[in-house]
Amino acid sequence: MTNAVPKKKSTIYDIANETNLSIATVSRILNRKGSYSRRSAGIVMEAAKKLGYAPGNTAFAYEPGSSKTISLYFPKDAADFEHESYFAQFMLGASEEAISSDYGLLLCRCQKNTDSGNKPKVFFDPARFSALVVPYFPENIEIDVEAMLEMGIPVSYAGQRLSGDMYGNNIYGGYIHYKRDVLELLYSRGYRNILVFEMFHQVRNLSLIESFRRLLEEFRIEKGLTNDKCRLVIYDKAVPDHFQILLQSIMDSPNRPEVLFTDSVDVAVSAYNIIQKAGLNIPEDIGIISASHFEHSGKEFLPMLTTVWVNAREMGRRSIRLLVKRLQEEGEEVDRNVPYKICIRDSIGFKSPAPQPQK
Q1: pLDDT digits (tens, 9 = 90+) for 256-301
Q2: Cα–chain-centroid distance for residue 126?
Q3: Has residue 26 been placed in a domain?
Q4: CATH of the domain at 297
Q5: What is the pTM of this model?
Q6: Total count of domains within the chain
Q7: What are the φ/ψ torsions at residue 313 (nearest 5 degrees)?
Q8: Residue 47 belongs to a domain
Q9: How far is CA 290 from the centre of its chain?
Q10: 217 and 108 assigned to the same domain
């Protein structure tokens, strides 16, 4: 007599796949929490009936530790924008740590959520993966991540701690902190006309730019600088040569900055070309500093470029290490703050004489 194979119970993830809605939306509807449309509620309840879903099936469809694969979320358009080097370094570190921990690492891509204005959503299959790591938040997928954390799914993510994250599952590279440190460094060297470039892209979480805008405003007021002496300029990665057009226009204006702070080494290359073609010298006429994800990046420039090194590779390592410790429920807690380093080179100088040591 052949033993019957038990029928697999339907879970919240099956309903999300069936309805093409996010896990967060399905969770709100099934638990009758938060806001959702009547149409979405009808779709979810119909799918739940069809799949034979029973309350309580939101837990993992595997025994803890049975799966040895971690899913790494990769935004669909990541390779099309500035943080390409960040993702490359993050994934390198994550793969190194996964291998050393005897876990597999598998990339998963976002899918569009037609019920939420075609925004991306995360599908996580607990039958295939032990945990999820999110290197970067495009648009609003943090809603899905918070829902997963609430349901007890092991998730680690890069960036500042989410409001719904009770236990600290984030690995932070110091985005706001290093921005402030760079501004302080430039001010200490006598720069009083500072121009900061930040990229806009449709997959980027705009709250990052808004956080930096507020920081820049606080810095400007604290130092007594006028609006035109400490500026934030947003360039659109999707517009061809937008950065070059903006910088050329600014360089031709009467209010030429004393120093530029760019958000990537690739952008710094264009800035060097524009500055030098204008017959200006770096750093005598204008200084420049840039964010980088490689420690020695900037040495290939002439003069060598000053950078703030954000260690994305170590962020990837610690993200996996944190997840493995969560899964195994053992070991010391992971330090979630990855240190950054300002590598001072020849592209910035002193706009006023350096302070003389007191005798």
Answers
A1: 999 999 999 999 999 999 999 999 999 999 999 999 999 999 999 9
A2: 24
A3: no
A4: 3.40.50.2300
A5: 0.78
A6: 2
A7: -60, -45
A8: no
A9: 17
A10: no
Q: Judge whether 323 lies within some domain.
A: yes
> Alpha-carbon distance 208 to 201, whole Å?
12
User: What does the pLDDT look like over 301-327, one tens digit per residue?
Assistant: 999 999 999 999 999 999 999 999 888
HSE value, Cβ hemisphere, 13 Å, CA-based, for 158 = 33
Domain co-membership, 239 together with 327:
no
CA dist 275 and 270 (Å) reads 9
| Cα 104 from Cα 129, distance rounded (Å) | 9
Shared domain check, 284 and 209: yes
Domain that holds residue 118: 69-172+313-339
Residue 77 lies in a domain: yes
Token pair for residue 205? Answer: 């979480």
